[in-house]
Amino acid sequence: MNDYLEIFNLKKVYPSAKGPQTIVQGFNLKLRKGEFVTVIGHSGCGKSTVLMMVAGLSTITDGGIVLAGKELDGPGPDRGIVFQSPSLLPWMTAKENVMLGIEQVFFTAEKAEREQIAEYYLTVVGLADSMHKKPGELSQGMRQRVGIARAFALKPKMLLLDEPFGMLDSLTRYELQAVLLELWRKNKITAMMVTHDVDEALYLSDRIVCMTDGPEAGIGEIIEVNFPRPRDRKAVMEHPDYYQLRARLIEFLEVHAHKKKPAALAPVSATAVAITA
Amino acid sequence: MKETLRKLDFLLLPLLGAAVITGLWYFSSATWAGDLPNPTKTWTESKPYVLDPFGKRGEMDQGILRFTWLSLILVAKGYSIALILGTPIGFFLGLSKTFTKAFDPIIQILRPVSPLAWLPLGMVFFAKVKGVNISEMAALFTIALCSMWPTVLNTAVGVRAIPTDYMNVARVLKLSRWKTLTKVMIPATLPYMFTGFRLSLGIAWLVIVAAEMLTGRPGVGGFLWQQYNALVYEQIILCILTIGLVGFVLDRLMSVVERRFKTA
Ligand SMILES: Nc1ncnc2c1ncn2[C@@H]1O[C@H](COP(=O)(O)OP(=O)(O)OP(=O)(O)O)[C@@H](O)[C@H]1O
Ligand SMILES: [Mg+2]
Question: Are B144 and B81 in contact (CB under 8 A)?
Answer without folding.
Answer: yes
